[in-house]
Amino acid sequence: MLTTARTRLRKIRLEDADDLYAYGRDPEVSRFVGWDTHRSIADAELFIEASLDKYERGDVADWGIEHGANGSFIGTVGYLWWETHEAAAEIGYVLAKPYWGQGLMTEIASEVMRFGWDVMGLNRIQAHTEPENVGSRRVLEKCGMQFEGCLRERVRSGDGFVDLLLYAALRSERRQ
Amino acid sequence: MTNALTLAEALHDLPQLPTERLLLRRLTLEDAADVFAYASDPGVTATLNWETHLSIDDTLEFIGSMLDLYRDDRGAVWAIQLLATGTVIGTIGYNRLDQGGYVGEVGYALARPHWRQGLMTEALRAVLDYGFRHMGLRRIEATCRIDNIGSYRVMEKCGMTLDGVLRDARYVKGRLESIRLYSLLRRDYERAYRSDHRRRLRGASGADDSSDAVAEDTAGGR
Predict the structure, then answer these.
(1) Distance from C-alpha of A136 to C-alpha of A154, rounded to nearest angstrom
(2) Smallest Cα–Cα separation from B173: which of B4, B85, B63, B52?
(3) Which of B153, B147, B152 is nearest to B181 (CA)?
């Protein structure tokens, strides 16, 4: 478990399904993530079961984000992959809309990056986001990541293809 | 210009691609000695993300894995045969297809005596053309080590542009390397192809319709 000033990061549990569905069904929240907007609580449960499987297998997986003040489950954060040869990993996150615009994700991602440097021994931490996801770009910049490039029309999104912006931080640039 | 096949159709009996000085064709086990000659050269492999071949067995294993892919209609790697001598002097092809077959990553290697003659540019043009026109790719990307000028000059000459530099993104031969990521989109390729084609038609017919064509080219270039 990791803690930040305003949150606790802990394993996701089946009991989080209601809270997870509350934001998973919100198209604005799921607009830029790799999964489809949840249409029923069963989608939220499937998401949680996938995380539980990863815990069991010992794969990289998400933490659940618990709000320190009210104890609600408000999002997830974690590493999507971890290449041990390169000592590189990619970070990803999602946060319920009522908690946007308060610097929470910057606080959380910074702690997850600290874990990456100190515990996972990473040399490179990267993240992708879409050009229109201004909030996420701000988070990555505030966490000390540098913009590396725009991968034009790199991924499918709905009927079309969208650009991906690639950000990364190196251990040598570490600020904290 | 599109003659889109399904990906499996495009890769079934992977076709030969002839160019001015080269024939791109499937690898066979008989190519092992030619391939080993350059794949065992550390000067060739220094900047590439595969290990130098230490014995002909490494080469046979590599060719064997290509033959398996050809058999399953999944192979998109060509031997580069020099027409003048019949020698295989390199390989080029799609190492990875992503996003349901719409994004392809191209990679290549060339024997050192044949560097700096525009041969790889010739080969890459043919492979990009096949990727966009027959494999249905929308985006073709390629990476090279940040200081591999020869390689990224080839990409630039083929119209690929730099998406970014990924710092410390690859661990090869005992060290971390930064890589350049280049790409070309089908719509940009088609636009260049169309204006090329118009230019060629004008040249062949002798009809000077340049005012119209120049206007279109300018619009396309914006």
Answers:
(1) 18
(2) B52
(3) B152
CB atoms within 10 A of CB B101: 15
| Helix/strand/coil (H/E/C) assignment for every residue in chain B | CCCCCCHHHHHCCCCCEECCCEEEECCCHHHHHHHHHHHCCHHHHCCCCCCCCCCHHHHHHHHHHHHHHHHCCCCCEEEEEECCCCCEEEEEEEEEEECCCCEEEEEEEECHHHCCCCHHHHHHHHHHHHHHHCCCCCEEEEEEECCCHHHHHHHHHCCCEEEEEEEEEEEECCEEEEEEEEEEEHHHHHHHHHHHHHHHHHHHHCCCCHHHHHHHHHHHHC
CA–CA separation, B106 and B40 (whole Å):
21
B99 touches chain A (CB under 8 A): yes
Q: ipTM score of the complex?
A: 0.88
Is residue A77 helix, strand or coil?
strand
CB A152 to CB B139 under 8 A?
A: yes
Which secondary-structure segment (H or E) carries A47?
A: helix A41-57
Which residue has 């069904």 as its token pair? A25
Q: How many CB pairs under 8 A join A and B?
A: 60
Q: Which two tokens stand for residue A40?
A: 């029923």
Helix (H) or strand (E) holding A65: strand A62-67
Mean pLDDT of A4-25: 97
User: Which residues of A are less than 8 Å from B140 in CB distance?
Assistant: none
Q: Give contacts of B102 with chain A, Cβ < 8 Å.
A: 156, 161
Residues of B in contact with A166 (CB under 8 A): 164, 166
**What six digits make up the tokens of A26?**
């919100």
> Counting every residue, how long is chain B?
222
Kindly report, residue by residue over A67-119, the tens digit of the pLDDT: 999 999 999 999 999 999 999 999 999 999 999 999 999 999 999 999 999 99
The amino acid at A73: F
A168–chain B Cβ distance below 8 A for any pair: yes
